[in-house]
Amino acid sequence: MKNFLIILTAVFTFSTCTAQNKKAPEITGLDTSIKPGDNFFMYVNKKWYDATPIPATQAGVGAYMFMNFPQRIRLQGILESVSKGQFPAGSVEQKVGDFYAAGMDTITIEKRGYEPIKRTLSRIESIRDVKSLMSFVAEGIKVGNGSIMSFGVGPDDKNSSMNIAHSYQTGIGLPDRDYYFKTDPSTVAIQNAYKTYLSTLFQLTGTNAATSKKDAELVYHIDQQIAASHKTRVERRDVHANYNMMAVAELEKKEPNIGWTVFLKNLGVQIDSIDVAQPAYYEKLNGLLKSVPLQNWKLYLKANTIANYAGDLSKPFVNAEFNFNKVLSGQAVQKTRGEIIASAVDNHLGEALGQLYVKKYFPEAAKKRMAVLVDNVQKAYAARIDQLEWMSDSTKLKAKEKLSAITKKIGYPDQWKDYSKVNISRNTYFENLISASSAAYELEIAKLGKPVDKSEWFTTVPTVTAYNNPSANEIVFPAGILQAPYFDNDADDALNYGGVGMVIGHELTHTFDDQGAQYDKEGNVRNWWTKDDYVQFKSRIQQVIDLYSTFTVLDNLPINGAMTVGENTADIAGIAVAYDAFKMTKEGQSSTKIDGLTPDQRFFISVAKIWRVKMKEEFLRLWINNNPHSPPLWRVNGPLMNSTPFYEAFDVKEGNKMFLPEKDRITIW
């Protein structure tokens, strides 16, 4: 280890990114009754965990995704302010302010009831055959009311510089196909809650209770048949199997009930081919369009439409949606109206609201320091590739070429999205939503057949997240995540490298995880590996699957190692490369203690703090079944079990619960 660090230090001189003349943040709250090597997550977080209640309006509390709760409060403050001001028509402030004001006008919304969707429900009743059914489905996609067909525009996996049409499996109301087939008590309770939800929606739009219950069962049966054709989450990780360019003429012959030619025409697009990611779904749908009675399809479309818009209608619909989601997530009390509408504005006018967020909450100094951190972790990654014993020189060269070609986006877009075609009024909340959805669809299809705009962002600026986009070979860190505990412009390097440095390493590793490794430096799905190297790589990926499959939560509910392998791989390597980058800083090379803690100890404590999360049991079950990330405890303990520097920093020895023999510790990158 010492020789390795000497080599790296000699190769790179890092730009400093330690805050000058500022006291390093104090680390408190460690539970010294817990041995760090037994449960490091709880050693760092147990006192916080026990003392912190989950807000009644939330399913969890803490860092990561739950930081979006205080973010929405910030956004709400911005929106409250601009909604009361006078701004020029068409300005960013006018659009987001009036959108928010319309959503907060609950008096008007309550008076309207479900009037905003009556015309759509009437349109469903007018359906007379499969052809008119498919015409309705196409109309829905254009205004954000998706159902049994999906349509999107994005890069071609085999030619990432061009946008093509894509279609994916869709059509179910529960979070995933498996919910329709499991028989454990928790899942059965969710199935029953979903049926009750559907029945309630029918009753709220005029159907009597007995008929509503029967109709809900019919809709559920259609859902279940659709779900049977869906690929599992694990199967959808297969990049090659989920790329199927098909001629529209071929689809027309193969699936005449769908009527692809007319369907695409109704969407306003003219194409000869489309990538059908999961063909089995559309084959099944083609049959169901004939085997399921038309009247049942109309019930399905009615239920789907009401459910799509339930949260945007009057209080009885909002309550029905919440009562269902409460069973899924465990959230006890509805979010405040302000939080709900702040989220809606962020979802529909995200880059307009983002401009106001950046002005108030994101200093340029933070962006500059983050850029240094990203560059340093990227350099450390290149050095790690050079040191890999299992990879040949030719593949190392390709890997480093890909690494150096990565585009790095920090804070906010260089060019903000244009919302000039979105019409916003203070008096018509529902119509504002439709206008925003329609404009978004028009922007989507305008990209079809054109070069990919690699400046585009796929998250909003205030969102606490980060992502890797393999088809563009880019990593993205919006302003929302560039705050404590991930990033603190006044903090020492140990905390920032253990925090956002780990996130940077994580996102860089997605470039080389089980999926990302199949894309070249241009973002095309193309093999750049030697055969032997790829076999070696896959064997290490399997080690990750095997290890995480042994981890459990709650009543021995296992982590799905195959579903979470990409994120787990990124966590293991993310910590390793962030640590290497930290060791190239002045603080990383020193032994000076702060608050009685060594620099390495502060680094690893920061890793544990960024996943400091407490959640409801129901939400944890939802997470395990659907989230490709491991639960927070295992995002800390799992990777650290494989980190030899962690063992050294906290004197972890055989007999500790997190101990793995050195030969069993996983090193991929």
What does this structure look like?
This protein is an alpha+beta fold. Among the domains are: 114-313, Neutral endopeptidase, domain 2, CATH 1.10.1380; 363-413 and 457-669, Collagenase (Catalytic Domain), CATH 3.40.390.10. Helix content is 52%, strand content 7%. It contains 26 helices and 11 strands. Strands 2-3-5-4 form a 4-stranded mixed sheet. A 3-stranded mixed sheet has the order 6-8-7, with helices on one face. A hairpin with a 4-residue loop joins β7 and β8. α4 packs antiparallel against α15 (337-348), α4 (92-104) crosses α16 (350-361) and α17 (364-387) crosses α20 (493-510). The radius of gyration is 26 Å and the shape is globular. The two termini are 15 Å apart. Mean pLDDT is 95; it is low at 1-21.
Quick structural summary:
The protein has helices at 2-11, 40-51, 68-83, 92-104, 106-112, 118-125, 130-142, 185-204, 209-228, 248-254, 260-267, 279-291, 294-309, 315-329, 337-348, 350-361, 364-387, 393-404, 429-446, 493-510, 531-548, 565-582, 599-610, 617-626, 632-640, 644-649; strands at residues 60-62, 152-156, 159-167, 245-247, 273-276, 407-411, 467-469, 474-478, 552-553, 557-558, 613-615.
